[in-house]
Structure formats: C-alpha cells, structure tokens
C-alpha cells in the first residue's frame, strides 16, 4: 500500500509539472514578454508556483530560484521559508526552457509528507492491534490445545490401567488432533479385538484339551487296578490322548512360525494341475470308503512358485474337511481353472456369520466338536496361502460349501 501510494503521488506530480511546462512553453510562443510576465505573476499557487527571471528581477510566487535546479522532467525538492505558523514548506519542481528564458515550475509536496506520516501512524497502530489480537488468539488456542492434551493424557492413563473400552473424544473441528484420536481409537479397537481373540483361544484350549486330559487322569488312576493283560491297551489309549495334546501345541507353534515368516519355504515351480491330480489320488480312496463320489475337473494349467509340501498340506486339509463333513452319497468336486482352485461339497456347510471366524485359532463350530481335531486346520490353511500370496473365500453351495483359492 505504501509503494502504491508513493507511486500514485509521484505519477500525479509528474503529470502536473509536465502539463504546466507545456502550458508555459506554449504561452511564451504566443504572448509578448509583458503579457507573459502578467501570466506568471497571476498564476494560481494552488496549481503550481511559477517563477521567471526577466532582465530586471524575479516575477512569480517565490523570491528566489534555488541553484542547481534540473530541467524538467527531472526534478528535486527544496525548502522555502514563509511567514505564519507554518514557516517551512517543501517544494518539488524543475526548470522549463521557454522563449523568454528558464521558468521555475514547482508545487508543494509537504502535504504528501504529512499523508505519509498519517499512513505510517495508521500502519503502526494496525500492526500493534494485530499483534495484540494474535497474541490473545494464540493464548486462547494454546489453552484449548493444552486442555485437549491434558484430557488425552488422562484417558491414556485410564487405558494404561486396563480400561481398554476408553476412547478419545472426537470434536466437530476434524483437525489433526481428531485425526490422531480416530487413529488411536482404531488401534484400541484392534487391541480389544486381539484381547478378545486371546481370551477366545484360551477358552478353546481349555475346552478342547479338557477331555483328553480328563481321560489321561482317569487312565492313570485306573492303571493300578488294571490287570497285566489290559495294561498295554490302557497305555495305548493314554498315549493316543497325549499325542492329541502334543499335536495341538505343535500345530499352534507351526502356525505361529508360518504367520511370522519364521519358517523357510522350499520354493519351486509347481503346476496346479499336478497338485489337483495328487489331491484326487490321495482323497479318492477315502471318499470310496465313505461311499461318496469325488470329481476332478481341470482346464488350462497354471504355474506357481511355492513350497510343495505346505501347499499340498493346506489344500488337502480343505478336501479332507469336505469329505469329513459331507454325508454318505455326497459329491465332492475339485475344479482347477487356470489360477483358481475350487473345492465344493454338498455337506452341512458353514453359516454366513461364521465364515470369517472359522479361520481364527482353535475355533470349532459346535456341530464339528464330535470330530477329533485341533481347531487349527483352517487357521493353518489361511496362513500358508497368505505366505504364497493366495486368497481364500468361503461361499454357500446350497447345500454345502464352496472354497475358492486364487493364486
């Protein structure tokens, strides 16, 4: 604003001096010396101050012409002392060459200085008000932030004490603190879910191992009462129960190693058609024994890179489940379509609300609890497939289940 004001005033001053210069040069060409002197003497001082030196004295609004005055359009400032309370005036002007000699054309510019002073005072006042307002707003803003930080700290202490249901509040501002609170709340949701999963795993371990451990206890109590002939049979039963317990813990350790990437994969190029044929050959005898039918369908082959043993273990687990949970006369299909492997059956199926939960550790649906197992099969399947960048989706077969694996 200051530069614009100065530029505008400078432009107006140049235009005014240039106009007066042209006017007096034109008058010198059209008027005689006496008439020209009269025009200079009667010039309006509100427009410009004109001074001309004739052969005898100075004529015009001033009693002197300063030395070293430049020729217009160049100009310079010079002071003039006058009577009255306002004794010093600042003029700006220059010389214009006419037929009758040089003429000093000047105008007062001390009003511009006054205007600049007023502008500077107004700017300083506005700056001070702005600083005061900024400090006040900054203080209020910092108090607001500090209040929210104190609240977050108090809630964090509650969470540290084990109150995991605590959540950070989210305001209407939707600012960075709210974004942080949303992320923190999502972390707490995940933490609560993990804790619930741990509690569920603990409950499932207690449920699934209670029966074999009870059998072990009863068997050990009955050992002294058994005859020597029945002792080997009783020991075999106890050994079987112990093997089941150990298998459960071994499966849990293997699952953890696979999920954490601690188990090294023996990678090689594999054909999905070859894996499908091996699955069919392995499961065909089991389905015949269960009076079920097994169908293999294959289309274009697809090559993948993976661990042959782990992949076969995972996919055969799915085929084995299809056989185990399907009735006599059921039809089980193994379908390979390029990079997709589909295993379908017409057995009892899985409810929609349980389709994701069955992949959790030690989760066994109630109808399947009479089958012996660890409850880790599908968890292991998903972990192995994830290590091979494959996805698994469960869907209904109406009746039965369809398992779709996509590499």
How can the largest sheet be summarized? 5 strands, antiparallel
Annotated CATH topology of the largest domain: Heat Shock Protein 90
Q: Give the uncertain stretches in residue-range form.
A: none
> How would you state the average pLDDT, rounded?
81
Spatial sequence of strands, sheet with the most strands: 2-1-5-4-3
Say which CATH homologous superfamily of the largest domain is assigned.
Histidine kinase-like ATPase, C-terminal domain
Tell me the β content. 15-25%
Per CATH, the class of the largest domain reads Alpha Beta
**Order of helix and strand elements from N to C terminus:** HHEEEEEHHHEHEEHEEHEE
| SS summary, helix count | 8
General form: elongated
Helix-residue proportion: 40-55%
Number of strands: 12
Layout: helices, strands, pairs:
Elements: H1 2-30, H2 33-41, E1 49-53, E2 58-60, E3 76-81, E4 88-98, E5 101-108, H3 110-160, H4 176-222, H5 231-259, E6 267-271, H6 272-289, E7 293-298, E8 303-307, H7 308-324, E9 331-337, E10 340-344, H8 377-387, E11 391-396, E12 401-406
Subcellular location: Membrane
Keywords: Kinase, Membrane, Phosphoprotein, Transferase, Transmembrane, Transmembrane helix, Two-component regulatory system
Domain HAMP: 143-196
């Amino acid at each position: 604003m200051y530069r614009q004001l100065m530029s505008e005033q400078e432009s107006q001053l140049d235009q005014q001096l240039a106009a007066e210069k042209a006017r007096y040069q034109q008058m010198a060409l059209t008027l005689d010396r006496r008439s020209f002197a009269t025009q200079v003497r009667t010039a309006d001082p509100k427009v410009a101050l004109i001074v001309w030196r004739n052969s005898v004295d100075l004529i015009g609004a001033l009693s002197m012409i300063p030395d070293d005055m430049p020729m217009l359009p160049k100009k310079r400032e010079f002071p003039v002392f006058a009577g009255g309370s306002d004794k010093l005036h600042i003029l700006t002007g220059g010389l214009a060459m006419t037929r009758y000699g040089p003429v000093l054309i000047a105008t007062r510019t001390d009003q511009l200085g006054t205007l600049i002073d007023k502008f500077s005072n107004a700017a300083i006042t506005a700056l001070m008000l702005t600083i005061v307002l900024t400090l006040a707003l900054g203080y209020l803003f910092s108090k607001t932030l500090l209040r929210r930080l104190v609240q977050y700290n108090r809630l964090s202490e509650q969470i540290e004490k084990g109150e995991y249901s605590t959540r950070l509040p989210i305001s209407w501002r939707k600012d960075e603190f709210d974004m942080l609170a949303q992320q923190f709340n999502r972390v707490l949701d995940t933490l609560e879910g993990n804790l619930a999963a741990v509690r569920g795993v603990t409950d499932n371990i207690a449920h699934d191992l209670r029966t074999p451990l009870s059998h072990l206890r009863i068997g050990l109590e009955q050992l002294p009462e058994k005859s020597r002939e029945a002792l080997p049979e009783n020991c075999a039963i106890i050994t079987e129960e112990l093997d089941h317990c150990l298998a459960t813990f071994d499966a849990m350790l293997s699952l953890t190693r696979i999920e954490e990437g601690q188990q090294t994969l023996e990678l090689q190029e594999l054909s999905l058609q070859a894996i499908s044929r091996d699955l069919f050959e392995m499961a065909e005898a089991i389905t015949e024994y269960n009076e079920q039918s097994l169908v293999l369908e294959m289309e274009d082959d697809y090559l993948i890179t993976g661990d042959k043993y782990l992949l076969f273990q995972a996919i055969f687990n799915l085929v084995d489940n299809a056989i185990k949970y399907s009735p006599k006369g059921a039809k089980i299909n193994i379908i390979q379509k390029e990079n997709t492997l589909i295993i379908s059956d017409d057995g009892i199926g899985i409810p929609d609300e349980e389709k994701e939960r069955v992949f959790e550790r030690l989760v066994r649906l109630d109808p399947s609890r009479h089958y012996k197992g660890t409850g880790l099969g599908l968890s292991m399947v998903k972990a192995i497939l994830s290590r091979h960048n494959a996805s698994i989706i469960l869907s209904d077969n109406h009746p039965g289940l369809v398992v779709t694996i996509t590499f």
